């Protein structure tokens, strides 16, 4: 985990600082800046050090829990805490939605393989996967937000869950499509397996065979996907937060990229990498619980 | 035991069973008029090559065919006189596992990988007998002991992948016997095991059968396994029984050219320098079973009649015109049957 963290932060760091343009000049805007102030600012942000030294200092700060300072002089940690709750609420809404609806659709389709529901789920999910996320988001915002007025179109004024419902559903829709298909395929495959035949031969009820034997095994890959996806959703929130004007960390990273606010971009990215790695770690542990064959003795 | 036992007749009687696989307008006849009977304490070997319908037939008896694509189109399966085929699913479940139980070829894939073996055995008792978890667990340990799994009490919480192949099959057997069924169907129980373990498992099955007075149906393609443990053999070809006899009778006087061919194709330790003769041709395509006797295209004795007239499975007539009783055991008449027009000629011609 540690090498991955170092590798990814270094990459992000290099990418941000390789961007053309001088962040200090951007900070000054149109107004001319005196050379003394310019030099002082450069020094303050360690921009006069060689890149590798800059990175080293950054990493050292990170270890002590210091994400650095934005170009506005605000600690990046504060920016994160501000946007954090919004993004987490959004991601969790999306996650719960894709978990419940995705698995339900997948099971429903899988049980009636080749039937009407199955065909609808398969074609519907293909459509969702094929349409770019932002197209879907803008269309839904227009239809359900403006035309029908069922949901707020932007902002978080209505609080959780109402403000987060539509963006959450849209954020989760792509993963939902994958989860529904994964659940369906896995269910159909396991339904043909030898141990399900054994379970039937034991004289168990259909329900017991399905829940205890078929589903229990079918959900192993789905749960794995869901775990990793929680990290994905937080990162994927950038576009949805932009479209629905939600002040989460996704929106902040978006703004930061535009003003070349390196510390903020790197800080938020690093944070997302951390979340992602943690999600993966949890999934690894969970996998052992779900599938005893993988358990480390 | 139960009042059902009053009814005389065989423990299990399968009659004229037909199973068809249908998909996309095409149909394949996997089982074509399978008939056999099984008595208490008896071991019937159902012998046949791949695709002869032996496994599908057994699954139809258990009622665990995947429908669709498999459909039982005709026939009857009676357990102690009760017809099972028309029973509503809920009633049928009371027989499955409790009265008629089944073990499968590959115990690794037949056991659920995510549940502890003890739980898988205990599930039988919890579901069918409404036992408490604690009771069922204790019984599971007893059963594991009974199939001679060493230190059963400490292995009850292990998962299937933690057992060796032979031990896994023992777990499977413990599970199948949890409710002391009257009939055990063993579908190639030793095919996935190596030879020494095979012998142990067969010995265990024979012992347990003796102890519990079960009827045992042993599905196999291994003539060697059959000779050791079976009382009777039903030889299947193209979805039906072509010859049925006491093991000794069938080995000594095969009355169907297919049986004759099979015996000529295996090495024998008691005959020196015998060259092996394979059966010509390949197993029949079940979507287009040959007319008349399904074996006639491969049969060295085939005549004109064989390609037009389907031979019935009938009792063999000896020279004196009386049923052949030579192999009779414990006073039972020898049921040597063959589905060949020229059965007497085949069996006498040796």
Explain what this protein looks like in three dimensions:
The complex is a heterodimer of chains A (297) and B (350). With 297 residues, chain A is mostly helical. Chain A has twelve helices and no strands. Chain A has helices at 2-17, 23-28, 35-44, 51-63, 76-111, 116-130, 133-147, 162-191, 194-201, 206-243, 249-258, 262-290. The longest helix of chain A has 38 residues, at 206-243. With 350 residues, chain B is α/β, with parallel strands linked by helices. Chain B has helices spanning 54-62, 89-95, 107-110, 117-128, 133-146, 152-155, 165-176, 195-212, 223-229, 247-252, 257-264, 343-348; strands at 12-23, 26-38, 43-47, 70-79, 82-83, 100-103, 183-187, 215-220, 232-237, 240-246, 314-315, 337-338. Chain B has an eight-stranded mixed beta sheet, with helices on both faces. In chain B, strands 2-1-4-5 form a four-stranded antiparallel beta sheet. The N and C termini of chain B lie far apart (46 Å). The model of chain B is unreliable at 1-6 and 319-325 (pLDDT under 50). Classes of the chains: A mainly alpha (297), B alpha/beta (350).
What is the architecture of the largest domain in chain B at the second tier of CATH?
3-Layer(aba) Sandwich
- CATH homology superfamily of the largest domain in chain A: MetI-like
* Alpha-carbon Rg of chain B, integer: 21 Å
**Which architecture of the largest domain in chain A per CATH?**
Orthogonal Bundle
CATH class of the largest domain in chain A: Mainly Alpha
* CATH fold category name of the largest domain in chain A: MetI-like fold
Chain-averaged pLDDT of chain B:
83
Helix content, binned percent of chain A: over 70%
Task: List the topology elements.
The complex is a heterodimer of chains A (297) and B (350).
Chain A: H1 2-17, H2 23-28, H3 35-44, H4 51-63, H5 76-111, H6 116-130, H7 133-147, H8 162-191, H9 194-201, H10 206-243, H11 249-258, H12 262-290
Chain B: E1 12-23, E2 26-38, E3 43-47, H1 54-62, E4 70-79, E5 82-83, H2 89-95, E6 100-103, H3 107-110, H4 117-128, H5 133-146, H6 152-155, H7 165-176, E7 183-187, H8 195-212, E8 215-220, H9 223-229, E9 232-237, E10 240-246, H10 247-252, H11 257-264, E11 314-315, E12 337-338, H12 343-348
Parallel strand pairs in B: 3-8, 3-9, 6-7, 7-8
Antiparallel strand pairs in B: 1-2, 1-4, 4-5, 9-10, 10-12, 11-12
